[in-house]
User: Fold this.
Amino acid sequence: MARLDRRGPFAGHVVAGRTLYLGHSFGGAAALQACAEDRGCVGAVDLDGGEYGSVTRTGLRAPLMLVGHDNSCVTGTCDPAAAGDRPDRRVARRLLDRSRGPAWTVTLADSAHFSFTDYADYYLAAPLRFLVPLGSVDGRAGLRLTAGYLAAFADRATTGHGSGLLQPGRHRVGSATATVAGVRPGRTPEQRAHAAG
Assistant:
């Protein structure tokens, strides 16, 4: 880890013993679980992945962000379209309820599961386009907006500072729109230190 901080594209951005986990789909569930098991975890982001593992029962002590596609129940903020969606919503709500750190949910309008991947920016010809769930959101704008949320969350989790993107409400980049819910915004590390001192 220390070598990554000295050279290459991550130079100046790696702090051994302080890890932020991020993953898409099942990788999002793995990010949450890894954070729960790593004392050095400073935060975790789940990009449109169902939550699994013991973390769903214990919650996280570190900040977390759940990002989902339009009406995705993995954020806990959906209106279940089918009976099968209810367990996802219940698990997400339990995770959010049992977590002790700040938590945010983000829903990207007009998106689908693969809108958070490189596929959103590719030209996919028919019939492949119909096999990859992307939604109608402009892929490039959706990825820019998602990247903005990820950067704001990373800043908040690692430094205690974040941009206005973490404020509850609707945000727009180009034609892409997302809604943020600050489930439990929590306090910055500076505010916690001041309260303890």
About this structure: The first strand starts at residue 19 and ends at 24. The domain at 16-187 is CATH 3.40.50.1820 (Rossmann fold). Residues 187-197 have pLDDT under 50 and may be disordered.
